[in-house]
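hiii, so i know i said id send this last week but things got crazy w the move. better late than never?? heres the sequnce for the chain we talked about at the cafe, plus the structure i predicted for it. fair warning i was half asleep when i ran it
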Amino acid sequence: MKQATFYLLDDDASWLELVCRLVTERYQRGETLFVLAADVSTAEQLDEQLWQQDAASFVPHGLSDEPTVGMAPVEIGVQGPRRSRQLLINLAPHAPAFAGRFAEVIDFVPTDETRKQLARERYKHYRAAGFTLQTLPAPAAQPSSNETD
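okay and structure toks below
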């Protein structure tokens, strides 16, 4: 059964950090991912943020237009993925036509009313495509091990 999870953002400013955490967690579980960015600038911003993570959180990834992206478990792009992946993280304002190729989709509900309405439309699209849907609060950041010492 295909699953779509919408995370309710309580602060639109921290979405990039949340996406990086989700990508890292899913990669560490052994999953392959495609992150659909709204635009090239967002894709590059996410790419840079993932490179800046500490070594323990390293995620092999690439932008769709890079020649070696087919070997990376995480692909970031503004079109469809170059190879099959398990999970789609959607950062675009629309639900992509290719979403049905994924076993799971993660999407977001921002606080801004205009963008929230776009999230409702994506929700309807996923439901019509046969996804089981759930809406959850955005997961809180976990303290790193050196913060608990």
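btw Residues 3-139 form a domain with the Rossmann fold fold (CATH 3.40.50.10110). thought thatd interest u
miss u guys!!
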